[in-house]
Design a protein that fits this description.
With 455 residues, this protein is an alpha/beta fold. The protein contains 13 helices and 16 strands. It has helices at 63-67, 69-83, 104-118, 129-132, 215-221, 298-316, 334-339, 341-356, 375-380, 384-397, 399-408, 410-415, 435-449, and strands at 12-14, 38-43, 88-91, 122-125, 147-148, 155-159, 164-168, 192-198, 225-229, 235-238, 242-245, 261-268, 271-279, 283-291, 320-330, 360-370. A seven-stranded mixed sheet has the order 1-6-7-8-9-11-10, with helices on one face. Strands 5-4-3-2-12-13 form a six-stranded mixed sheet, covered by helices on one side.
């Protein structure tokens, strides 16, 4: 329900570098005696209308549910703000996913923001690297009162009745190498200071190092809450002061698993008294890992899959469930699974549909089982096979050896197109540690193929 007339300007704007005192009076401070608590919602990485290519290739894929998922998650974000009677929504970058095919994406976003404006919710947006790549984004007219932070320098907006100061800056270009956070102004005394920033803190693995900064610098800035974007997995990097990646609103593929949503912050007495993750996704991605070690047949494996899918379906709480099923372990079922791989993949899909009442879709079935082997016995063998097993194990456990192998792949890394790193199952070559999972796969394949590996 609306709390009053639509807001005008989102707050008193403070010139960059200025340090005004707080003049709102004690009754205006958040959570002061007789004043209600202030609620702030922190979201990021909406990637509205993110393209999901090639879905038609997947058997039984819920194409329409997946394609509309980011829009429905945005609607859930708006509903959260309204249901919680939030005072402020901050979005820390990547509202969009690069250039739109037409204006419908932007118009849909603006319409959702209009609902918040009518309810009196102040909105602050900081553009991220994907937003900066879009030419159409710059021409979109947002509802009155929505703050689209400058991309040239940090801005501060003071909401005196709420006792809040919101600081932020957006990306002017896709690849920002400067530490934007370093230029953010000092905190304003007597206010709850919020920093909105799209960034790679301490070089988050798997993410481009845009607007890099150090966690220590954010903590020492003196703000009460840092609302961060760019990393799609929710992370609380620090408490008191809070430094939080809210994660993205909606998982878009099999690497973005688990509950996705926004963070609800409650401020009382000038302090954050509650910081809660609220799931808002409409399609839940999960990696369903099934240990087949105790299974003696393919039917046993399928029964295990049925049990696991039921567990994930209950956790999804009515959402569409997109699963990547991974069968692993040294098992007597390895032979049957390998002899008829397509049959057992079909059996797994049928079991998932049965266990979920048709609400779960299996995106892929990865068979990573191995024959039963006595690895310790193999390592002790004085022959080429024993030497191979010892060598692979030593390489995995030796950081210097991994670094050497990683260096040997330097020419390959330079030749790979940028799109390769976005592919499912792509070998992670941004750091030597990314080779360790590949070595596990090498060992599994070699031992399954080489004669005499039964121990």
């Amino acid at each position: 329900m609306p709390r009053g007339p639509p807001p005008g300007p989102a707050g008193r704007k403070v010139a960059a570098g200025a340090r005004p005192g707080y003049h709102g009076g004690p009754a205006a401070r958040p959570g002061a005696r007789g004043a209600p608590a202030v609620k702030l919602v922190h979201a990021a990485d909406l990637h509205l209308d993110s393209p999901l290519r090639g879905l038609e290739r997947y058997e039984g894929a819920p194409v329409e549910a997946l394609r509309s998922a980011t829009r429905r998650a945005l609607a859930n974000l708006v509903e959260l703000c309204l249901a919680e009677r939030a005072d402020v929504l901050v979005v820390a970058g990547d509202l969009y996913d690069g250039d739109w095919r037409d204006y419908h994406t932007g118009l849909h976003f603006a319409a959702q923001l209009g609902r918040l404006r009518e309810a009196g919710v102040r909105v602050f947006l900081a553009r991220g690297n994907h937003d900066a790549a879009s030419q159409l984004t710059r021409a979109l007219r947002l509802p009155e009162g929505v703050v689209d932070f400058s991309t040239e320098r940090p801005e501060t907006h003071v909401l005196e009745p709420l006792g809040l100061a919101v600081h932020g800056q957006g990306f002017a270009a896709r690849a920002v190498s400067a530490d934007l956070g370093a230029a953010y102004p000092p905190p304003l005394p007597g206010l709850f200071n919020v920093g909105v920033l799209h960034t790679s803190v301490d070089g988050r693995e798997g993410h481009e190092p845009y607007a890099p900064c150090r966690l220590e610098a954010l903590v020492n800035k003196g703000y009460d809450y840092w609302a961060l974007g760019h990393v799609h997995r929710r992370e609380v990097l620090h408490v008191h002061p809070w430094v939080v990646f809210s994660g993205n609103l909606q998982g878009r593929h099999a690497r973005e698993t688990g509950p996705k949503g926004a963070t609800l912050v409650t401020v009382e007495g000038g302090k954050a008294t509650s910081v809660e993750h609220r799931p808002l996704d409409v399609v839940r991605w999960a990696q369903c890992v099934v240990d087949a070690s105790a299974c003696r047949s393919g039917d046993d494996v399928v029964d295990r899959v049925r049990e696991a899918v039921g567990h994930y379906q209950r956790e999804a709480e009515g959402r569409t469930l997109a699963l990547r099923v991974v069968l692993q372990g040294r098992s007597d079922a390895h032979g049957p699974l390998g002899a008829e791989p397509e049959r057992w993949r079909s059996e797994v899909r049928a079991a998932a549909a049965d266990a979920s009442g048709g609400e779960a879709w299996v995106e892929k079935v990865l068979v990573r089982t191995q024959p039963r082997l006595d690895l310790e016995a193999l390592r002790r063998r004085d022959d080429p096979l024993g030497s191979l097993v010892r060598g692979l194990g030593g390489l995995r456990e030796d950081p210097q050896a991994l670094a050497w192998a990683w260096g040997e792949l330097a020419s390959l890394r330079r030749k790979l197109p940028a799109e390769y790193h976005q592919l499912e199952g792509a070998l992670r070559l941004d750091h030597p540690s990314g080779l360790a999972p590949a070595l596990d796969e090498v060992e599994r394949l070699l031992l399954a193929l080489l004669p005499g590996s039964e121990g």
